[in-house]
Automatic annotation (TrEMBL):
InterPro entries: G_CP_dom, GTP-bd, GTP-bd_ortho_bundle_sf, GTP-bd_ribosome_bgen, GTPase_MTG1, P-loop_NTPase. It comes from Tumebacillus avium. GO terms for molecular function: GTP binding; GTPase activity. This is Ribosome biogenesis GTPase A. NCBIfam families: GTPase_YlqF (TIGR03596). Keywords: Cytoplasm, GTP-binding, Nucleotide-binding. Belongs to the TRAFAC class YlqF/YawG GTPase family. MTG1 subfamily. It is found in: Cytoplasm. Residues 14-178 form the CP-type G domain. GO terms for biological process: translation.
Length: 301
């Protein structure tokens, strides 16, 4: 299965980001701490150009803390300011705000030199769908102004939101890119909820989750579902889990559909503990790769 989701509204949202770029001082690039590379738009450098940028590893509460530290070092080595945060509870936000102020400082100095009274920093919040952009804005503003939701595509238009006296934040719709070169990227994004549900087949996503869990967090599925010696074959493993949970149809047949959905739901809900899907070591070679922009293929609205 190849996963692709780059509908017309996303192409439009990307154009609007480019149009607004000149108005902003800083870009907050939100990535998912569970998949910091796969959740980064490969076109980000091209989109953001040379605006000061702060990388925020969001949903850090769901990610493996040891690997999050490695990712922080990875980004910092590339000269990017980077903070791990939990946009829902507010963890890491004071640090993120102080980093953002530091990035804005040269402009403040320039304004002062010109005799202009420094204004609030204007930051554009960018990231894939469902990564927590609007949640971050609400938490920083200490009120629910931006609409949020547990599915991708909630924010449909840009919106400026004033946060105290220090920031004005521009909420934007989540943006993906026309083609996932590596199919595993599509699966990671599907597993964590960045792809619209209606265009997804649940079976390959559930199988992917079982494979990842067995490779990276051996034993977690066995203890979560209370099954001993989970079969190595992911389909058989899913069947054993469905049977254990009592998802049975007439004739004692496992309801696989219900089992696939269960696997995805539990994974997204953090029921398997703090899980990270990729390590910086997996990406050493790609660090300097130049990603060419693909022809826009607008498939799905
Ligand atoms: N566990 C956890 N959940 C989070 C965090 N931040 C956001 N969420 C949840 O992630 C989901 C998506 O949040 P939104 O703020 O709507 O995401 P968005 O990036 O604005 O999404 P779009 O507008 O669809 O692009 C919601 O269910 C949030 O509650 C976090 O740090 N930790
Ligand atoms: Mg949003």
């Amino acid at each position: 299965m190849t996963i692709q989701w780059f509908p017309g509204h996303m192409a439009k949202a990307r154009r609007e980001v480019t149009e607004k770029l000149k108005l902003v001082d800083i870009v907050f690039e939100l990535v998912d701490a569970r998949l910091p590379m796969s959740s980064r738009n490969p076109m980000m450098n091209e989109i953001v150009q040379n605006k000061p940028r702060l990388v925020l590893l969001n949903k850090a509460d769901l990610a493996d803390p040891r690997i999050t530290d490695q990712w922080m070092q990875y980004f910092q080595k590339q000269g990017l300011a980077c903070v791990s945060i939990n946009a829902l509870k507010g963890e890491g936000l004071p640090k993120a705000a102080s980093e953002a102020k530091r990035l804005f400082e040269p402009k403040v100095e320039a304004m002062k030199k010109k005799g202009i009274r420094p204004r609030a920093a204007r930051a554009m919040i960018l990231g894939i769908p469902n990564v927590g952009k609007s949640s971050l804005i609400n938490r920083m503003a200490k009120k629910s102004i931006a609409k949020t939701g547990d599915r991708p595509g909630v924010t449909q238009a840009q919106q400026w939101i004033k946060v105290g006296k220090d920031f004005e934040l521009l909420d934007t719709p989540g943006i993906l890119w026309p083609k996932f070169e590596d199919p595993a990227v599509g699966l990671r994004l599907a597993a964590t909820g960045a792809i619209k549900e209606e265009i997804l087949d649940t079976e390959p996503v559930a199988i992917f989750i079982v494979k990842v869990m067995s490779n990276r967090y051996k034993g977690v599925l066995e203890s979560r579902f209370n099954v001993e010696d989970l079969p190595a074959d992911p389909r058989e493993a899913l069947e054993a889990i469905g049977r254990k949970r009592g998802f049975l149809r007439a004739g004692n047949v496992v309801d696989m559909e219900a089992t696939w959905k269960l696997m995805i739901r539990e994974f997204r809900g953090g029921q398997f503990g703090r899980i990270t899907l990729e390590d910086p070591a997996d990406f050493v070679e790609e660090e300097s790769a130049v990603v060419e922009e693909e022809v826009v293929n607008t498939t799905e609205e």
